[in-house]
């Protein structure tokens, strides 16, 4: 396959997966600008490995693993300063819509308080829909670690959110 064909395939994959990777990055870090940075780093690494990873399922797994590992590495950097998003939103016409938005914001803010590994575990398990085994492979740790990180992360969210965690409007966040 020629270099032009490789670039075209990569461009097609990038166009198809960019938004999904960016949303996942946002759920990991809680900041759209940082999510853009994580997405960019992930796709740069994928471009470097493009000729070695050829099957679509392998591409998705490589991309997912790369994104989570980039996030964990970046979150360890002590000098990284993060801005906090404001929870104050402009008035919205529908009360139900505003309640759903507020619930989603509460969950995102609560996720931001979790340690990076717990947060990554919950995003992999509940947003990406990965099994315990798949999450362990992505995070390069044991199944027991995934189970304990999931349990601790959910317990922390329940302490912070109470019943808001069971809100059906969060299904949109999980997708």
Automatic annotation (TrEMBL):
What does the record list as GO biological process? Answer: DNA-templated transcription initiation
Domain of life, per the record? Bacteria
Q: Where is the RNA polymerase sigma-70 region domain?
A: 16-77
User: Domain RNA polymerase sigma factor 70 region 4 type: where?
Assistant: 105-157
**Gene Ontology molecular-function annotations:** DNA binding; sigma factor activity
What the entry lists under SUPFAM superfamilies is as follows: Sigma2 domain of RNA polymerase sigma factors (SSF88946), Sigma3 and sigma4 domains of RNA polymerase sigma factors (SSF88659)
Q: Recite the UniProt keywords alphabetically.
A: DNA-binding, Sigma factor, Transcription, Transcription regulation
- Entry's family note: Belongs to the sigma-70 factor family. ECF subfamily.
Q: What is this protein called?
A: RNA polymerase sigma24 factor
Q: Its gene?
A: rpoE_2
């Amino acid at each position: 396959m020629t270099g032009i064909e490789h670039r075209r395939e990569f461009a097609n994959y990038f166009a198809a997966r960019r938004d999904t990777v960016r949303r996942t990055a946002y759920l990991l870090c809680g900041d759209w600008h940082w999510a853009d940075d994580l997405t960019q780093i992930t796709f740069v690494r994928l471009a470097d490995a493009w000729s070695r990873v050829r099957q679509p399922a392998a591409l998705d797994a490589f991309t997912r693993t790369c994104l989570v590992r980039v996030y964990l590495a970046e979150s360890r950097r002590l000098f990284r300063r993060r801005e906090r998003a404001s929870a104050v939103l402009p008035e919205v016409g529908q009360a139900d819509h505003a309640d759903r938005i507020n619930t989603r914001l509460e969950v995102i803010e609560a996720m931001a308080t979790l340690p990076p590994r717990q947060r990554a575990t919950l995003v992999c398990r509940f947003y990406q829909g990965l099994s315990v085994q798949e999450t362990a492979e992505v995070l390069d740790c044991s199944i027991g670690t995934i189970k304990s990180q999931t349990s601790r992360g959910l317990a922390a969210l329940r302490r912070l959110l109470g019943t808001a965690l069971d809100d059906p409007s969060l299904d949109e966040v999980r997708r």
